[in-house]
Amino acid sequence: MKTRVAVLLSGRGSNLEALIEAGQDAYEIVLVASNVEDAPGLAIAHAAGIATFAHAHQGLKRAEFDALIDAQLRAQDVEAVALAGYMRILSEGFVEGWAGRMLNIHPSLLPLYKGLDTHARAIEAGDHFAGCSVHIVTTGLDDGPVIAQARVPIMPWDTPDTLAARVLIEEHRLYPRALAEYVRML
Question: What is the tens place of the pLDDT at every residue in 47-70?
């Protein structure tokens, strides 16, 4: 039986698309939720026949907004959550409520470069490799245990944009596989 997964996103939805296209037998995406009402990723979900929920977070306290998302997840009998470009820090209560059942894809080789501007920071540091990490979400920002990584060489001519494009290709390969492997253990 497939694990019922919700994807939370704030933007274009390229990792959502990769999760859908992978066609994994381990999970079924049953809901896509966003804090951005016109996030392009919602159109991807609609096209795939996946239920969506979108609500702007402005004007709501973090815990209030997260309670709205949580209610949607529970109404859809979601068993695991995949963050895919969800650009909002989650409340402690939300994270604790989904402890051990929520993954995130992050564009760095964690524990390096938590937060934003990961590609620029890796280039500025003179690193030879960048990459992406799938980790279990905990209350610390990009701080949970890493379950999978992919490395990408940093070329001498790289800019943050060129490096980001190559890392994104690896994200699309890594996340579906890591999510499938993880939910099989739930």
Answer: 999 999 999 999 899 999 999 999
Distance CA 22, CA 8 (A): 18
Average pLDDT of the chain, as a whole number: 97
Q: How many helices (H) and strands (E) does the chain have?
A: 6, 7
Known active-site residue 106:
yes
User: Per-domain residue ranges for the chain?
Assistant: 3-184
What value, to the nearest 5°, has the Cα angle with vertex 90 and ends 137 and 70?
Answer: 95
Could you tell me whether strands 27-34 and 102-106 are parallel, antiparallel, or unpaired per DSSP bridges?
A: unpaired
CATH class of domain segment(s) 3-184: alpha beta
Any residues with CB less than 8 A from the CB of 96 and at least 6 apart, and which? 139
Beta bridge partners of residue 28, listed in sequence order: 4
How buried is residue 74: exposed, middle or buried, by Cβ count under 10 Å (0-12/13-18/19+)?
Answer: exposed
- Cα 82 to Cα 59, 114, 135: the distances in Å are 25, 18, 10
Query: pTM for the whole thing?
Result: 0.96
Task: Give the max Cα distance, the chain.
Answer: 49
CB within 8 A of 76, min separation 6: which ones? Answer: 4, 6, 30, 31, 51
- Percent of the chain at pLDDT > 90 equals 98
Q: What is the pLDDT of residue 24?
A: 74
Q: Which of 106, 119, 135, 172 is catalytic?
A: 106
